[in-house]
Amino acid sequence: MKKPLLLFLSVSSFITLQAQSGTVSAGGDASSSAGSVSYSIGQVDFRNITSSENSLNQGLQQPFEFFVISVEETFIEMELNLFPNPTRESVMLKIQSQDFDGLQYQLFDEGGKLLDTQKITGQETKIDMASYAMASYFLRVTKQNSDIKTFQIIKNF
Questions:
Q1: Of 19 and 5, which is predicted with more confidence?
Q2: Distance from CA of residue 86 to its chain's centroid?
Q3: What is this structure's pTM?
Q4: How much helix, strand and coil, in percent to the nearest 5, is found in the chain?
C-alpha cells in the first residue's frame, strides 16, 4: 500500500498546472452563500495580431466596441440619441424634433430578422429589450420610408 502511494506522490510532484494570468490594474474576490467569483478590472498586457484576412486579440479581457451605424438623409435634419447602451432591459430613443409625422423604428436581430416595428409619437420612446436574448441588435429609425439613422444596441445580462 505504501509503494503505490509513494509512486503517486512522486509522479504528481513533476506535473505542473498552467492557468491564465496577467497584469491588471485592480481586482479581487467576492463571495456569498450563493458562491464566489474572482474578478479583474483593466488590463495592462494584451497582444493584437492582424493580417489581411484575420484579426486575433490575446489577453485576459477582450476589447468591446459598439458604434452607431448611420445612414443619414441630407434633407432630413434631426438629432437622435439612444441610451443606455449597452442595456439590460430597455433603451430610450430621444429625438430633438417636433415633427413626428411618418416617423417609426424597426428593431432587427443580428441576422436581419425584423423583431418589432413601432410608430414614434413623441420626443422620448422607450424600447423594451427585456424579452430578448443577450446579443447585438440594430434599431433603424425612418421617416416616411427614408432611413434617418441606424443604431447598434448591445443587450447584456
A1: 5
A2: 6
A3: 0.54
A4: 5, 45, 45
